[in-house]
Amino acid sequence: MNTWLDEVFDVKKPIIGMCHLPALPGDPGYDAAGGMTAVLEHGRREITALQEGGVDGILISNEFSLPYLTNTEPVTAVTMARVIGELRSELSVPFGVNVLWDGVASIDLAVATGASFVREVFTGVYASDFGMWNTDVGRAARHRARMGASGVRLLYNIVPEAAAYLGGRELAQMTRSTVFNGAPDGLCVSGLTAGAATDTSTLKVVKENAGAVPVFVNTGVRPDTVAESLQYADAAIVGTWFKKDGKFENDVEAARVADLMSVVRGVRA
């Protein structure tokens, strides 16, 4: 059965590499001395390494804007739009965006830059490291419609990082109701934090209850786990493994990307 994944990526089980932008203006960790020149150079290095390593797509996020806001300041999306605008001609694969943790801002950024998809937490209420975390999927869906952005696919984090769902329902039930009530274009299944392994049994439950909605393994993918994850997941989003020594804070290395993509080609075959 064909899905929008086939239309966008034209490959079975696409691998989307993360371009983690450094802290941006307004963020506590922003390098004011290096300024936007340093941010742009970092983004260019990440995109170049990911594409040289052979990823099928790229997801650009403000991963180092820690601690995250659930209602971001305008400067964040504005800065990301500048970065993507300047680097857009160097992107040779489909790309998405994620303004952490703000679904509406992510949609706005996608519209402004021509991104094919966004990833965010669009449904549920959570107790998180960033406080009580509420969402409004109806508002986000209507915002996308008002922006004329039906072609921007919305990937919902069904098991968000650093947060616990307050609904008290089992994952299978939560998945079915999210698909029915929220009409996601994809469901992302995560571990505890960036780089943390995603439990295969959790992936299996989500996949079995997602119907025709594609399921993404969202964290912890490595060469030794990717084959098992892709038994259930329709795609993978990979960040930490692609970085030097597999450490979140380091830069992406093209050789590590190529190593994982080699395993993925075997899985596809």
TrEMBL record:
Top-level taxon of the source organism: Bacteria
Indicate the transmembrane segments per the record.
none
Pfam families linked to this entry? BtpA (PF03437)
InterPro entries (UniProt xref): BtpA, RibuloseP-bd_barrel
Q: Which family does it belong to?
A: Belongs to the BtpA family.
- Stated name of the protein: Sgc region protein SgcQ
